[in-house]
Write a structure and sequence with these properties.
The structure is a single chain. This protein is mainly alpha-helical. The chain has one domain (about 5-125). Helices cover about 70% and strands about 5% of the residues. It is built from 5 helices and 2 strands, in the order αααβααβ. A two-stranded antiparallel sheet has the order 1-2. Helix 1 packs antiparallel against helix 5 (about 105-120) and helix 4 (about 75-95) runs antiparallel to helix 5 (about 105-120). The chain is elongated and about 50 Å long. It binds protoporphyrin IX containing FE. Protoporphyrin IX containing FE (HEM) binds near residues 51, 54, 57, 80 and 123.
Length: about 130
């Protein structure tokens, strides 16, 4: 395995830890969500971990392109980027607030599940030739 490949796999592991943190943090709020709930540290840290590792993954996939002939699918990356920025902005705006409007956490949950579904059903990288 090349150094870039190893770096990619380690970054993907961190991407999944961010994903687990975001979704897990959301799931712990399912009951509290009915009356507002709160942005837990797991949600907040999961969101920025996904964003940063996502950038890293994109760079590493391109770094390997000459060897693998694969590149990220533009619309998938674009949607994922849009979704994680929306989640991050919501998490940042309502971080450490006691009373959240009741739409905030369901929106974060729906956006997270949408990003997981898009990434998994479509795949994120594809052959370019
Ligand atoms: C809520 C946000 C996100 C979720 C739930 C998510 C989820 C996932 C999942 C499940 C995979 C594995 C899919 C597969 O390997 O076929 C993946 C891979 C990937 N993600 Fe994300 N992601 C998110 C945000 C981002 C962002 C913002 C970027 C880039 C700016 C990004 C870039 C990538 C790349 C390049 C891969 C492919 C790695 C590879 O297969 O070599 N992700 N993501």
């Amino acid at each position: 395995m090349s150094g870039i490949e190893l770096a990619l796999r380690i970054t993907l592991t961190l991407h999944f830890i961010g994903l687990a943190s975001l979704l897990g943090g959301f799931l712990t709020q399912m009951k509290a969500m009915k009356t507002g709930g709160s942005i837990t540290p797991a949600i907040f840290h999961g969101a920025w971990t996904l964003l940063i590792t996502g950038f890293g993954l994109t760079g590493l996939v391109y770094a390997q392109k000459a060897e693998t002939g694969e590149a990220p699918i533009g619309w998938v990356l674009g949607l994922k980027f849009f979704i994680i920025v929306a989640i991050f902005v919501l998490a940042y705006m309502f971080n450490k607030k006691d009373k959240l409007p009741t739409w905030v956490l369901p929106s974060i949950g729906l956006l997270s599940v949408a990003a997981i579904a898009i990434a998994t059903i479509s795949g994120v990288v594809a052959a370019t030739n």
